[in-house]
Design a protein that fits this description.
This protein has a two-stranded antiparallel ribbon. The chain has 14 helices and two strands; from the N terminus they run H-H-H-H-E-E-H-H-H-H-H-H-H-H-H-H. It has 288 residues and is an all-alpha fold. The protein starts with a helix and ends with a helix.
């Protein structure tokens, strides 16, 4: 459902200027779990809405997430050659075009969200609130802030002005967790969920966002590089990670505790939450 909608929404490659649109589509359709749009659609459904009504916003979340990956891979950031088993955007199109492709994806994500106001049954004021929620999640107090602290903490014994554990928690909750939580929040918001239901889903998002990043850190050590589709490692880049701070076994325990807490938060929803329960388990059992 998401892939078909993304193909429909994304500007075609031949549109001027074609090099930018080719680069944008290259990364959007390079694979991926579509976790954030699925969370958005599931949050809409669990709170009584129709997933199809929030599809533009669900796709926007994937487009915005893809922008972050394109920019993360750049030489000035993580300097990666592979993403999902394919050459990274800047390796194919050059650094300048990759930067512009990321810029185009980020801004188009908000254009897509705005289009959700035209969908029957979705109140425009809720779309405005959802745009604000996502903007905060990806801005300097969300994803951008987490990435900035991640860059500053590379190679440091104690990162910045706090303990390694506190800084690590900040990085993960902002760089990865903020957009995951926002995906659930806006899916529920656009469907007219009660404040109580929306808070429960946001708290669930906090926990699975944490578990997701811990699992990524663990996979970087024990995972199959071919399945992960990457060449480098966090250790090589002297990244501040959960295994680096807590060790491998304790990191795995922390991820499991986060998933257990996430599932507990879903109990008020009953069987309607089956998909989100399964997704929580998937996060720490996946191989890529």
């Amino acid at each position: 459902m998401v892939d078909k909608a993304l193909d429909r929404f994304m500007t075609k490659e031949e549109a001027l200027p074609p090099v930018v649109h080719k680069a944008m589509r290259y990364s959007v359709f390079a694979g991926g779990k579509r976790l954030r749009p699925v969370l958005c659609l599931a949050a809409a459904e669990i709170t009584g809405g129709k997933p199809a009504r929030v599809l533009p916003t669900a796709c926007a979340l994937e487009v915005i997430h893809t922008y972050s990956l394109v920019h993360d891979d750049l030489p000035a950031m993580d300097d990666d050659d592979l993403r999902r088993g394919r050459p990274t955007n800047h390796r194919v199109f050059g650094e300048g075009v990759a930067i512009l492709a990321g810029d185009g994806l980020l801004t188009y994500g908000f254009e897509l969200m705005a289009k959700n106001a035209r969908v029957a049954g979705v109140r425009a004021e809720r779309v405005v609130e959802a745009i604000g929620t996502v903007a905060r999640a990806v801005g300097s107090q969300g994803m951008v802030g987490g990435q900035a602290v991640d860059l500053e903490s590379e190679g440091r014994g104690v990162a910045l002005n706090g303990s390694r554990a506190k800084v690590l928690d900040y990085i993960h909750r902002h760089k990865t967790g903020a957009l995951i939580t926002a995906s659930l929040s806006v899916g529920a918001l656009l469907s007219g969920a009660s404040p109580k239901a929306q808070r429960a889903l946001e708290r669930y998002g906090d926990q699975i966002g944490l578990a997701f990043q811990i699992a990524d850190d663990v996979l970087d050590i024990v995972g199959n590089k071919a399945l992960l589709g990457k060449s480098g490692s966090d250790a090589e880049n002297q990244k501040l990670t959960y295994p680096a701070v807590y060790g491998l076994e304790e990191s795995q325990r922390r991820a499991r505790r986060a998933v257990d807490e996430a599932k507990r938060l879903l109990k008020p929803f009953g069987r309607r939450a089956d998909l989100l329960v399964a997704l929580a388990d998937y996060i720490i059992t996946r191989e890529n």
